Amino acid sequence: MRFNFYPTCPCSDKVWGLIAHRDPCMLTILQQDSVGGLQIQTNGQWLGVATVPFSLVVNVGDMLKAMSNGRFQSMLHRVVTNSSKQRLSMAYFCNTTSDAMIGVAPALITKDRPAEYRPFGYAEYSCMPFHPSDLTSIHEYRPHRLDSYKIMPTDSVSE
Ligand SMILES: O=C(O)CCC(=O)C(=O)O
Ligand SMILES: [Fe+2]
């Protein structure tokens, strides 16, 4: 569980509350107050997540993306700062144990949709640094950390 406190920021056009990232866990259950500021990236566009009273935001993490063979997407998200209102959010991260091996659920591997990821340890994954561009060029495309475990289709040899 993490409490995120975002103080008011006089340079809200230059400072991120939280830089763009994907959650590394299975699922995040987020309670946010009414200030707003959470944004998700979809089709290259940043969209604000509405604040709905008494509701929770459920965010898919990278582990669920891998286990579902990409059926569930872990969204890139960030938080912008606000020059006049402080903000509070509470994130509950649903995690595997740190020694868990993560793999695509066998029932979701088919001939038409082979496993997209090789098995990996959650501990190794969660220690992997964010891509350096996370800290510099927020707007650029950056590879997904899960891509390190992607199974590349082998070129078939034609006769
Ligand atoms: O504060 C928010 O709305 C998002 C928090 C978040 O993305 C996180 O804690 O991973
Ligand atoms: Fe997050």
What does this protein structure show overall?
- There is one protein chain.
- The chain is mainly β.
- It has one domain (about 1-150): Jelly Rolls, CATH 2.60.120.330.
- The chain contains 2 helices and 10 strands, in the order ββββββαββββα.
- Strands 1-8-3-6 form a 4-stranded antiparallel β-sheet. The protein has a 4-stranded antiparallel β-sheet with strand order 2-7-4-5, with no helix packed on it. Strands 9-10 form a two-stranded antiparallel ribbon.
- A hairpin with a 2-residue loop joins strand 4 (about 40) and strand 5.
- The longest helix has 6 residues, at about 60-65.
- Keywords: Iron, Metal-binding.
Quick rundown:
This protein is mainly beta. It contains 2 helices and 10 strands, in the order E-E-E-E-E-E-H-E-E-E-E-H. The longest helix has 6 residues.
Q: What distinguishing features does this structure have?
A:
single chain; 159 residues; mainly beta; Jelly Rolls; four-stranded antiparallel β-sheet; binds fe (ii) ion
**First-last Cα distance:** 56 Å
Ranges where pLDDT stays below 50 over 5 or more residues in a row are: 132-141
What coarse outline follows from CA principal-axis ratios?
elongated
The residue-averaged pLDDT reads 89
What is the class in the CATH system?
A: Mainly Beta
| CATH level 3 topology | Jelly Rolls
Name the structural class: mainly beta
Largest sheet report: 4 strands, antiparallel
Give the topology string: H per helix, E per strand.
EEEEEEHEEEEH
Do you know the CATH architecture?
Answer: Sandwich
Tell how many strands the DSSP assignment holds: 10
* CATH H level, superfamily name: B-lactam Antibiotic, Isopenicillin N Synthase, Chain
As for the number of domains, it is 1
Helix content: under 10%
Strand content: 25-35%
Bound molecules: 2-oxoglutaric acid, fe (ii) ion
